[in-house]
Design a protein that fits this description.
Multidrug-efflux Transporter Regulator, Chain: A, Domain 2, MerR_fam, DNA-binding transcription factor activity, mainly alpha, MerR-type_HTH_dom, DNA-binding, Transcriptional regulator, MerR family, 55% helix
Length: 181
Amino acid sequence: MDKSPDAFRTISEVAEDLDLPQHVLRFWETRFTQIKPMKRGGGRRYYRPQDVDLIKGIRHLLYDQGYTIKGVQKLLRENGNQFIAAVGTGDMAAVAAIAARKQEAAQAAAASTAPRGGVDDEMLVGEPKVKPSRRFFGLGKADDDGPVAPGQSRLSKDNRALLQEALFDLLECKRLLDQVR
């Protein structure tokens, strides 16, 4: 006797349907807090249809698409349960609609924070607050000398500020590149 599509499923039924061992489902519950089966007395798990769809999506991303657990966690954080469940059910129209809504929201947020002037803040990564010294860049000194003056074990305040700003600029570049990926 087959169950209704809206019926709750036991862990053995879900494991059999998805061709997964039961211990994998239990493990995924620890890694993906979005999977929350109802538990009855004795710890018996009952999965809702939404849970099964979410697990199908996670399984597809991990096993078929080659994502890591951290990658799927990031997708869940960024796109939500509905997106992953739509991936699991193969509903590409829903996946596209959710992605389009997310992109529209990101564009609206970017438009609301865009500068009113002619220059886009995203294009300027940062400007130095301190003018770089010639010594910092190795101009007009011996090859043995570095940004630390001979006999000192620390950078000058100006050179330290330049290094901190360069680090900030590199981190901002990394953030921008990660957004594009």
